[in-house]
Amino acid sequence: MALTVTGTGGLCMFVGLMLIGHIVGSYDLDIVLSSGNLIRNDPLYTTVLILILLGR
Q1: Domain count, the chain
Q2: What is the Cα Rg of the chain in Å?
Q3: Domain range for residue 33?
Q4: How far apart are CA 18 and CA 23, in angstroms?
Q5: DSSP designation for 1
Q6: Which terminus of the chain has a smaller tally of CB atoms within 10 A, N or C?
Q7: Burial class of residue 15, CB neighbours in 10 A (0-12, 13-18, 19+)
Q8: 5-54 pLDDT, tens per residue?
């Protein structure tokens, strides 16, 4: 059971981070960190937020 919970959480966080990179157009950490407004104004923001919180 623990492996399922850990694996699912990790997968959710991974998908959330991949979506952030897709929204920003880059996976470079400097660019992602400076693109907060772009991420918050995207229609996928709620989905990304939920996925990352599930992975926490």
Answers
A1: 1
A2: 12
A3: 2-55
A4: 9
A5: -
A6: N
A7: middle
A8: 999 999 999 999 999 999 999 999 999 999 999 999 999 999 999 999 99
